[in-house]
Task: structure prediction
Amino acid sequence: MTHRRAIWVLLGCTFIWGASFSLNKMVLGSATPLAFMAVRFAGSALLLAPVYRHVDRRDWRTGVALGTLFAVQLALFVVGLAAIDPGRAAFLFSFQTPLVPVLMLAFHWRWPTGRDLAAIGLATLGGWWLTRPAANGTGLGFGAGDLAMIGSAACAALYVVLVGAVANRHEPMRLMAVQFVVISLTAGVLSAGFEDPRIDLNTTTVTLIPFLALAGVATFVGQLAGQRAIRPTEAALLFALEPLVAAAVSFISVGERLSLGQWAGGGLILAGSIVAQVGRSAVVPAVPLPSQAVN
Result:
């Protein structure tokens, strides 16, 4: 793949990820979060049916462990998205990016660098600014939905670090296929235990759930292919566009309007993401973020 084509492929992935915040939000108007998650990832698993013939025990052991963390991350994501607007959710979820290098340094028993601390500081200040009552004009500040989304971002960052430690030992598609099964089963169990499962059969669910199942697989494949042809810093900058796309699509599709204060908060989180990644060597990868690819 040429460098130019890789840029376009990753831009396409970024656009789909950003748009997915609003698409997921639309589905959640007709389905309970965990039931939706179970069905969506069952669909993704079915799309990868031919891959399972090649999955071995090592893939299953690693995939079950990663898939469980992945499922927790996604459960927090859909629960948070059900409670807050897509644009706000996207900026809060991008908090994962500055957390990745800090967690990697912690795993290697090294102190965070000044840049790591600056990135976390910017993202934290942005998160406060984004969720404070005066910023959104609603009188409602930090709530359960915001907490769930930040928890999802933290799990996503941990997931990226763990995947980086085992990725070279497994074929990516096989590992992802196992995780789709684990996510679907875990979400199904959680749905039965913690909610009254419901998915209304209407135009929204019948069209968007299959699309999101396909999009998750397609963007993961596109991400793997595209990142082989560009530098990690370039990928980090492209992926930083995701919350901006999410905010734009949310405005067009559901009429979400971010106040000036919320844009300022989102901008600080975005700045923290860029500071955390730009200029780093491949030792601290900006990507891949399979958790992001199927959000």
